[in-house]
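Now for one record:
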Amino acid sequence: MTHSRTLDTVEYAGFAQPSSALVTAAHIMHAPASEMATRLSAALADDVPHRAVALLATQCASSPVAAVGDQEITDTLTGAVLGALVAQVTPGHPWQGTAHLAGGPWPVLAVASDLTPRGAGLVMVLDEDTPVTANVLLIVQALVDLLTSHVERLVTDATPNTLAQSRAVAQARTHAVAELGEAHAAALSGILGVLRSHRLDDTVARSTAVDLAVNALLELRNESPRGTSPVWEESARQAFGHLSDSLKMLLSHSAVQLELDPPANDRSLTSVTAHAAKVSVRAAVLAALQQSEVRRIRVGWQLGLTELVATVRDDGPGLLNDDLRACQIAQRVEAQGGSFELDAVPGWGMTTKLTFPLALSEAAATRISRPVFASFPDEAPGADPLAGLGARELEVLEHLALGHRNRTIAQELHISESTVKFHVANILSKLSVGSRGEAAAFFHSAAV
């Protein structure tokens, strides 16, 4: 006797047997994309009681979020909200805790998957804050990974026109949201800085806050046509000047001292690169201001042959944490084909390094000769052991190699002694040495 049935008619009763989890996975993956979240919610109802469930599929530009359950909750589960939460979860290690969603704290279970380049995940708003068993967590993680791989394949196998349109929509949306978010954040931070200032009376503070708001609105209006304009070019110094103006306004009534290090050489940047660098640096400055005990922030641009390196250094506590803003900055920079580095030295501060690629013809590249350094045991021949240091750090290291003390270095480079100490701490950390003498020896060993 034979029995025929479809996956749509199967009934499930939790994950008591491993086979039931496999059948559940098949049932969910067999569904149309619009029904996957509904079937997943039904499958998890007994083992993980919840009020709402949302899937974040970053591959889908037009509808990256699928949410079912309590409408008061699901209406607030946007891609930005889910992405911010999932970004803090380590793939393969589901996280259970309390998150601020839908206007209040809720117990949630968040699962992340790295089986797609941009990441994906699941967020469940639970009925109560009761720990989910380890066995169920493993199965939920496996289901999320399977769904992520399944959606990734659907997107990959899509027709070229559909895929190109989806990616174009996603890129445009990501850029627009990021830029508007940073512009609003900068404007609000500047206004709050004025209103909180103890050096201004009420009348001056109100007038200044109005000026900041008007300038912010003008900036947004000026930027609005950019999305429909062709790519144009802007000189690096001009772009840095615009960035400097916005940062000065942001910190004009703050106790934090702003130091600016413009690019030493000038060349044309595409509008895309210039704007990405300005937005990302401003976001990094805003992140630095969230720390306590920050008295000074230094912003600099360095133009190489193939890359623009922007650095944001502060003299805060120098403690790394799982900062959501840092994750968002990293994603924005990497979306431009660049790289993001965050380096902290406890007691000395933190350095954010943002690298953006620049267009360089092969002919120009072959005309450039680079110094060859002696190789070290763990490095390939010809590798530069000092490549991880910035230009200013190399200058400080050179003075260390000459036996100069901090006061002399400060006088020679026209910077403060505290800034010298900051650079020395970074140098020791990056070279993995324990003293100034070891750093000097390292420099001499690397010299040609």
